[in-house]
Amino acid sequence: MTELVSGASDSDLGAYPTGTSDRSGHQTLKPHAAHWGAFDAVVRDGRVVGVRPFARDPFPGSLIDAVPDVVHAACRVDRAYVRRGWLEGKRAGHLRGGDPFVPVPADRVVRLIAEQVARVRAEVGHEAIFGGSYGWSSAGRFHHARSQLHRFLGLGGGFTAQLNAYSYAAGQALMPHVLGTTEVLLGRVTDWNAIGQHAKLMLCLGGLPLKNGLVTSGGAGATEYTQHFRRAAEAGVRFLNVSPYRADMPDWLNAEWVPIRPGTDTALLLAIAHWMVAEGREDHAFLASHCVGWDKLRAYVMGESDGLAKTPAWAADITGIAADRIIAIARAITAQPTMLTSTWSLQRADYGEQPWWMLTAIAAMLGTIGKPGLGVGFGYGSVNGMGNPRRDYPSFSMPATRNPVGRYIPVARITEMLENPGGSLSYNGREVPLPDTRIIWWSGGNPFHHHQDLNRLLRAWARAETMIVQEPWWTAAARHADIVLPATTTLERNDIASSGRDRFLRAMHQAIAPVGQARNDHDWLADIAEELGYRDRFTEQRDEDAWLRHLFERWRQACARQGVETPDFDSFWAQGYWEAPPPPPEEAYTQFAEFHADPAEHPLDTPSGKVELFSATVAGFGYDDAPGHPVWIPQREWLGAEPAKRFPLHLLSFQPATRLHGQLDPGRVAAADKIAGREPLLMHPEDAAARGLRDGEILKVFNDRGACLAGLRFDDRLLRGVVMMATGAWFDPLQPGMPGSLCVHGNCNVLTADIGTSRLGQGPSAQSCLVEVERFSEALPLVRAHRPPPILEILEGLEPNPR
Ligand SMILES: Nc1nc2c(c(=O)[nH]1)N[C@H]1C(S)=C(S)[C@@H](COP(=O)(O)OP(=O)(O)OC[C@H]3O[C@@H](n4cnc5c(=O)[nH]c(N)nc54)[C@H](O)[C@@H]3O)O[C@H]1N2
Ligand SMILES: Nc1nc2c(c(=O)[nH]1)N[C@H]1C(S)=C(S)[C@@H](COP(=O)(O)OP(=O)(O)OC[C@H]3O[C@@H](n4cnc5c(=O)[nH]c(N)nc54)[C@H](O)[C@@H]3O)O[C@H]1N2
Ligand SMILES: [Mo]
């Protein structure tokens, strides 16, 4: 593999289509891939100057347009830096984010890190290194930053890890108790062919938002997300969009919109259940043969166990949906074959386990779990690839490394971990001990993007001694670090992209030389491992090329075991991609089909082998925030709650249409969507009129936890009282390092609450958030997030003080 600049040789291009030189002959195309799609990078004079969508992608997304901007952005980390305060010994107890950085030579920074790691390992223990490093990293599977860090820390003795994903942590904890698997939310779900062939109606909580299909974890060669909706609609499926936002479903699906107050779906579902029982529409046979606990759930629904019947009239007050409309929905789903789904967002809220458990219960009452094309599945509207008709081929990956100390926290409990060293927290029936964290190490994720209540995080973050962040860009995580290692972007190295939800394997050719002194994460870690005496165990004495060939060979053998023919590495690399044979167009997959046919022969992996509408296991945990069957518990913050008087707007922070989380934020696609450089806040024009606000104005959005600026965008597709902001505008406090400082750019996580969904799931609960807005009439502060932080040139005489 060559590191190409201009004028590629034949061997660079190989069999890859070469009709790509412009008249000057200096332009080349390099096959590449990212979570936001597959593309060819257009390279001229050592720079990425453009992108062309992958020719085999039927519906390439628009996010790839931002790639050249971000690769060459001014906010690339150009070399290694150490925070001045850290060098002066201002470590544990000092707020990060305020003081400037000092450039430090690469060899010295490697030694500094190795010293700290060795000392903490010896003096405190491996669990004092928090290496959870949650985040999406990049699509390439060898250079996947988080996997590389876990390998490095695991081989060195271990670390404290993070369990589950921000995306669906509550669901990951709950579903094994109910359906015996997490596949129903992240794996191979009933596919769109089956839905199109058998369903007449699809009830979608949270809709099927088009923008979510722009991304696939690991990247996709085929963005087929919308095509499946279209085909299902053409096959006669009608769609119900139950959501506070009409635009969660594309107009062309002609969906019926049922506006619902955020966080109240469980009440709606309980009322549907009540009507079904009252009308005798539940599938008694299925409930008896395939489920346990119906008697207990039934007693709760009818009010026999708690004196409160969950009638449509009861739910109408909570949800804002009229009782007769609730009955009409209940009638519709019982009268025709119906598929049920919910976006992942519903469980990123207080008690987020409940709507998913109750939706599963409705599928059980309908008797449809495992019936062709029916039942329930989560996430059809959340990411490209869910429900893709496919065969299960091996995906290309780094082998997982063991974490010898076996310590972890539930993914979103980081602030609590830092606040409570030596304490513990309840999670899914266990007491999880919290370590005394000394080193926080992030590579491939951005806690100052993804975590809730950033002001609280900022205070807790101060407790550790050393924060190490590996990043290509000066993200907020890098700015709040002590030691910053410049990482290459994928365009500066060779890799292979692969996703379990996509049938293409794609070569990612290095397109340009590393920018500045950026290095591959693997190479940084190999050098640190060398200082610590285990380079060879870390690298297995392979370089990048040898690793890719090795991993490819493993993948190839796994394919061969399934009888799938694959090319050799060199042919694959030259071709730029490999496509798994697509399944025959009529082939359809229904999850739980065997269980449906014979529950005794094919039991679920639950204690009873059946669908657990009441779980003795969960009940046994004794959690009042997640009892043994689905229940309605009002969220701490919602439109019916007490704080709504002071903060009368429900803020939903949804996934951005213009980037992937914080990634690509410095690029043109995200920039074009902003209002005077601030993240838009969507609001119903009447809510705005009631406050005397005009479209396009800059607002201050606030609650007791924090405040940010946002640009007002009218949107009459929203339920009144609900406002929306996308996540991902880089956190930009007016006074860096000061908790509570106004974020001038519009990062919604200064507003969200940091409370676990419940003791069962301990997932993030970002969606339960009330705010108020007002016009911001001061002079607009500069957005500095996309510039490097203050950097001091050389500080003579400042010797690092290891402690
Ligand atoms: N309010 C609110 N907050 C949310 C959510 C919400 O709905 N509302 N959603 C949550 C969800 S579902 C998720 S998944 C999280 C996402 O949170 P994250 O996954 O943490 O967000 P990303 O911005 O994708 O962070 C990935 C980081 O890795 C860096 N990176 C990319 N390539 C490389 C590389 O090769 N090497 C290194 N070292 N770094 C690299 C990128 O620059 C980026 O900063 O956010 C969560 N936060
Ligand atoms: N373009 C783009 N696509 C992405 C991502 C990205 O960053 N950019 N991120 C990816 C990731 S990591 C993930 S986890 C998925 C997340 O996928 P989701 O969680 O499905 O995405 P969201 O946009 O948070 O939420 C979808 C919709 O749910 C609705 N909703 C919110 N709360 C409620 C509620 O209480 N009730 C009802 N009925 N509806 C509600 C909102 O109107 C919102 O528009 O998206 C993935 N797709
Ligand atoms: Mo996610």
TrEMBL record:
<dbReference type="InterPro" id="IPR050612">
    <property type="entry name" value="Prok_Mopterin_Oxidored"/>
</dbReference>
<feature type="domain" description="Molybdopterin dinucleotide-binding">
    <location>
        <begin position="649"/>
        <end position="769"/>
    </location>
</feature>
<feature type="domain" description="Molybdopterin oxidoreductase">
    <location>
        <begin position="77"/>
        <end position="530"/>
    </location>
</feature>
<dbReference type="InterPro" id="IPR009010">
    <property type="entry name" value="Asp_de-COase-like_dom_sf"/>
</dbReference>
<dbReference type="InterPro" id="IPR006656">
    <property type="entry name" value="Mopterin_OxRdtase"/>
</dbReference>
<feature type="region of interest" description="Disordered">
    <location>
        <begin position="1"/>
        <end position="28"/>
    </location>
</feature>
<protein>
    <submittedName>
        <fullName>Molybdopterin-dependent oxidoreductase</fullName>
    </submittedName>
</protein>
<dbReference type="InterPro" id="IPR041954">
    <property type="entry name" value="CT_DMSOR/BSOR/TMAOR"/>
</dbReference>
<keyword id="KW-0574">Periplasm</keyword>
<dbReference type="Pfam" id="PF01568">
    <property type="entry name" value="Molydop_binding"/>
</dbReference>
<dbReference type="InterPro" id="IPR006657">
    <property type="entry name" value="MoPterin_dinucl-bd_dom"/>
</dbReference>
<dbReference type="Pfam" id="PF00384">
    <property type="entry name" value="Molybdopterin"/>
</dbReference>
<dbReference type="InterPro" id="IPR041460">
    <property type="entry name" value="Molybdopterin_N"/>
</dbReference>
<keyword id="KW-0560">Oxidoreductase</keyword>
<keyword id="KW-0500">Molybdenum</keyword>
<dbReference type="Pfam" id="PF18364">
    <property type="entry name" value="Molybdopterin_N"/>
</dbReference>
<comment type="similarity">
    <text>Belongs to the prokaryotic molybdopterin-containing oxidoreductase family.</text>
</comment>
<feature type="domain" description="Molybdopterin oxidoreductase N-terminal">
    <location>
        <begin position="32"/>
        <end position="72"/>
    </location>
</feature>
<dbReference type="InterPro" id="IPR006655">
    <property type="entry name" value="Mopterin_OxRdtase_prok_CS"/>
</dbReference>
<keyword id="KW-0479">Metal-binding</keyword>
